[in-house]
């Protein structure tokens, strides 16, 4: 818990106008500490503000991270304005501190940032209906189309090699060889599964190197609750949580959404008969994403969307298995085989996608017009 003195110190370094009515923890984010501040301004009403303590354990370079966010949101603001949209609601607006910086480093070394609060919109934690999933696909697709002209290579890699599946495969192999917890003997089938799919660890890197897939600005955390949905119109209006914005492949953003959004069960479901890649949800997301991209993806990228889903799912399963072999040092676990259960759901999904491969490709070509 952050102490009140520290919060006071932080707030005093911003030029927030009015009298502070409220300052309390907000939302269900897992990475940063998010606060909602409310200021009363005479004759104007109440102005809400989001204040976040950034997680510097996860993001080691907060200054570079904020540089990415400033650059991407400035670019988005211009594009949204050109298209006749409302940049105040359709992208994040960073509030500079009194020194003109997009962050404040407090006396204990924490990094803080502030955003305009986007009112009358909600980030939903769970997919309750197809329409929400469709709206998030549309919003993440639109994010791609608005940023299609942004020079992605100029962004900092906030987490190096985040989706470098080849590098993650090398870490996996090393974990198997070192076998520090003597767990490898119990997970031979899972290890074998990865080894049989080694091609998938290389394919996207190769396609990028050959120029078949272009480098894009990617979001890298395309969860439903990272899109704010307008309370009145129910349209996805704003992509938030830009910490992981980095150079990457559009099909990886798509693939990760499918990995968790089109699965019929929880990530740690023990009963694998409950785990499938739902083709209806796959279609809902594909339709929204391609529409949102508005013709800015290449034909090769669109055709590679199912591959993005398969590779992201394999990569994620491989990361769970690696962590299991290394003694559960990265992902938080609730019981000893938690990472193994998670790895199994991901591999079940990969196998299921392989079974449904023709259907997935047919769905993509149906919307590739
Ligand atoms: P995650 O676990 O998704 O990584 P996080 O800890 O990085 O989350 P955010 O997603 O940035 O945190 O913010 C947490 C929540 O605060 C969001 O889900 C959203 O509900 C709310 N929120 C963040 N920024 C804004 C904003 N500018 N306007 C309104 N609500 C916001
Ligand atoms: Mg979030
Ligand atoms: Mg986040």
TrEMBL record:
Keywords: Transferase. It holds the Pfam family APH. Residues 104-261 form the Aminoglycoside phosphotransferase domain. SUPFAM superfamilies: Protein kinase-like (PK-like) (SSF56112). One of its GO terms (molecular function) is transferase activity. The keyword Transferase applies. It comes from the Bacteria. This is Phosphotransferase family enzyme. The lineage of its organism: Bacteria, Bacillati, Bacillota, Erysipelotrichia, Erysipelotrichales.
């Amino acid at each position: 818990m952050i102490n009140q003195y520290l919060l006071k110190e932080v707030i005093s370094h911003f030029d927030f106008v009015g009298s502070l009515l409220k300052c309390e923890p907000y939302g269900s984010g897992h990475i940063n500490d998010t606060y909602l501040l409310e200021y009363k301004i005479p004759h104007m009403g109440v102005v809400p503000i989001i204040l976040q303590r950034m997680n510097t354990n996860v993001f080691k370079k907060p200054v570079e991270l904020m540089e990415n966010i400033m650059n991407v949101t400035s670019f988005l603001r211009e594009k949204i304005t050109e298209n006749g949209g409302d940049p105040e609601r359709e992208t994040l607006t960073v509030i500079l501190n009194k020194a003109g910086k997009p962050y404040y480093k407090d006396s204990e070394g924490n990094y803080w940032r502030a955003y305009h609060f986007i009112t009358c919109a909600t980030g939903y934690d769970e997919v309750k209906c197809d329409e929400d999933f469709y709206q998030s696909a549309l919003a993440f697709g639109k994010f791609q189309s608005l940023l299609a002209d942004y020079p992605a290579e100029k962004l900092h890699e906030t987490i190096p090699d985040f989706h470098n599946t080849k590098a993650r495969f090398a870490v996996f192999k090393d974990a198997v060889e070192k076998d520090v917890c003597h767990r490898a003997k119990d997970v031979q089938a899972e290890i074998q599964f990865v080894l049989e799919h080694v091609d998938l660890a290389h394919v996207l890197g190769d396609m990028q190197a050959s120029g078949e897939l272009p480098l894009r600005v990617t979001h890298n955390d395309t969860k439903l609750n990272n899109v704010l949905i307008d309370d009145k119109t129910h349209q996805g209006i704003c992509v938030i949580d830009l910490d992981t914005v980095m150079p990457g492949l559009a099909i990886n953003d798509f693939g990760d959404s499918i990995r968790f959004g089109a699965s019929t069960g929880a990530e740690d479901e023990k009963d694998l008969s409950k785990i499938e890649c739902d083709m209806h949800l796959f279609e809902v997301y594909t339709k929204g994403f391609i529409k949102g991209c508005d013709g800015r993806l290449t034909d090769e990228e669109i055709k590679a969307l199912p591959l993005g889903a398969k590779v992201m799912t394999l990569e994620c399963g491989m990361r769970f298995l690696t962590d299991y072999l290394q003694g559960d040092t990265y992902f938080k676990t609730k019981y000893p085989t938690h990472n193994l259960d998670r790895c199994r759901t991901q591999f079940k999904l990969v196998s299921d996608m392989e079974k449904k491969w023709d259907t997935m490709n047919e769905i993509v070509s149906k919307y590739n017009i």
